[in-house]
Amino acid sequence: MRVYGSAVRALRVLAAPLAILIGAGCAATINHAYDPATNFGLLKTYAWAPGPAISQPANLVDTNVRFIADPVLEQKGFSRGTGSPDFVVAIRFDSYPVTSYEGYELSALSLNVYRADGQTLIWRGTASGSISTDAASGDLKNAVQGILAAFPPK
Predict the structure, then answer these.
(1) Is residue 115 part of a domain?
(2) 0.85 cut: is pTM over it?
(3) What are the Cα distances from residue 49, in Å, to 16, 41, 69, 126?
(4) The domain that contains 115 carries what CATH number?
């Protein structure tokens, strides 16, 4: 019995790092870029750029990204503006339909931050890889939170 117990312990010790490596290989790659001349400390309020038309299936992805991002932005001290916001956030993604009911699989997700005019890009965060939009997977939440982890730049 002693040999069996030590073999089980050895497998557990080896399995944990292997699981981490496998999981990390499936995670989306996160990248950021920004305009270094922008004083991000002056930005306090934001608005979302108009999303896809209501009849498009991608509208659910857009809605879920906003639902995930709003509390993250709030925790960083930003508030969703009702009047003239300091910056505008636009959601862009590349997707392909999954053949089952789960929805979409994203190959790239970008959150683009523009000056209040909506024309001048000042920050961009992207997640690329296989990002499931199925709520149970957590992929979309991890991608959005990963993107916003570096906003605003320090």
Answers:
(1) yes
(2) no
(3) 42, 21, 13, 17
(4) 3.30.160.670
